[in-house]
Amino acid sequence: MQLVSYQIHSRSELHSKKENHFYLRENFLMELINPEVQSYAEHFSSKEDELLQEINEWTLKNHTGYNMLSGHLQGKVLEMISWMVRPRRILEIGTFTGYSALCLAKGLAVDGQLHTIELRNDDAKTARAFFDRSSFSSQIILHTGNALSIIPELDETWDLVFIDADKPGYIEYFNLVLSKVRQNGFILADNIFFHGEAIEQDPRGKNAIAIRQFSEFINGRKDIEKVILTLRDGLCIIRKL
Ligand SMILES: C[S@@+](CC[C@H](N)C(=O)[O-])C[C@H]1O[C@@H](n2cnc3c(N)ncnc32)[C@H](O)[C@@H]1O
Predict the structure, then answer these.
(1) Does residue 94 line the site of ligand 1, with CB under 6 A?
(2) 166 CA to middle of ligand 1, Å?
(3) pTM for the full predicted model
(4) Quick check: CB of 159 below 6 Å from ligand 1?
(5) Three-class secondary structure assignment of the chain
(6) How far is the centre of ligand 1, averaged over its atoms, from the C-alpha of 95 (Å)?
(7) Does 117 contact ligand 1 (Cβ within 6 A)?
(8) Are 178 and 150 in contact (CB under 8 A)?
(9) Which fold has domain 70-240?
(10) Which protein residue's CA is at the shortest distance from atom 16 of ligand 1?
(11) Rounded distance from Cα 110 to ligand 1 centre (Å)
(12) Which protein residue's CA is at the shortest distance from atom 11 of ligand 1?
């Protein structure tokens, strides 16, 4: 079965250079959103600013894991959510090259801070270099290391948390942060469809299984409300009651 990359339109020029418009399922990416709908939505949404566009293109050209980047539409949604919440404290788990952190930072309160955690040194360095070129440089605190050990050391009350690191860690990240999220604060969790694999009757890959377990875990809870947006690879918005 051949499937079209969901990033095909926002990155069509660069993609065509790489001749990888189409992906087999084995190649990880799976098209979930109709490409015409994606293209239409991108066309009628505000554009990425220059720095975000540069991060997007730099990541595509230089990073084998470029498909992990949130991208234009999801980035705008993160930015809008952040503007709606006007958070004083944001926690992001999984910085990568810094794209989503900069989207979320746009809605920070004037005295707000965003803490973001990245396991890999190289990605953390790349992200820091991009952060330092933005107007949010002093408001973004980048931690390099394993989120599982860094989160408990952060003495903050979170208004907004974005979980976007390794999928088998999602339940633990949720458990670590929930008590530190303020009442009516939000947790966002990315890749909730895991390229369509989590939707299958019996998910097989370890990431798809972990994502399904996460969805089942939060589904039974009475202390949160949640909704899944059919955006990109599925974005779950959770409100702490
Ligand atoms: C999907 S990418 C994040 C994408 C980014 N949020 C964006 O939208 O541009 C996931 C990142 O989480 C990092 N990661 C994986 N396990 C981690 C851990 N235990 N602690 C911190 N970061 C981790 C990976 O190195 C990777 O850069």
Answers:
(1) yes
(2) 6
(3) 0.90
(4) no
(5) CEEECCCCCCCHHHHHHHCCCEEEHHHCCCCCCCHHHHHHHHHCCCCCCHHHHHHHHHHHHHCCCHHHCCHHHHHHHHHHHHHHHCCCEEEEECCCCCHHHHHHHCCCCCCCEEEEEECCHHHHHHHHHHHCCCCCHHHEEEEECCHHHHHHHCCCCEEEEEECCCHHHHHHHHHHHHCCEEEEEEEEEECCCHHHHHHCCCCCCHHHHHHHHHHHHHHCCCCEEEEEECCCCCEEEEEEC
(6) 5
(7) yes
(8) no
(9) Rossmann fold (3.40.50)
(10) 166
(11) 26
(12) 94
Q: Please work out whether the CB of residue 52 comes within 6 Å of at least one atom of ligand 1.
A: no
Residue 39 token pair:
């293209």
Q: Which atom of ligand 1 is nearest to the CA of 94?
A: 12
How do the pLDDT tens digits run along the chain, 241 residues long?
Answer: 333 333 333 333 434 433 333 333 333 445 788 999 999 999 999 999 999 999 999 999 999 999 999 999 999 999 999 999 999 999 999 999 999 999 999 999 999 999 999 999 999 999 999 999 999 999 999 999 999 999 999 999 999 999 999 999 999 999 999 999 999 999 999 999 999 999 999 999 999 999 999 999 999 899 999 999 999 999 999 999 9
| Domain extent listing, the chain | 2-67, 70-240
Tell me which of 118, 149, 153, 195 to substitute to probe ligand 1's pocket, judged by most ligand atoms within 8 Å of the beta carbon.
118
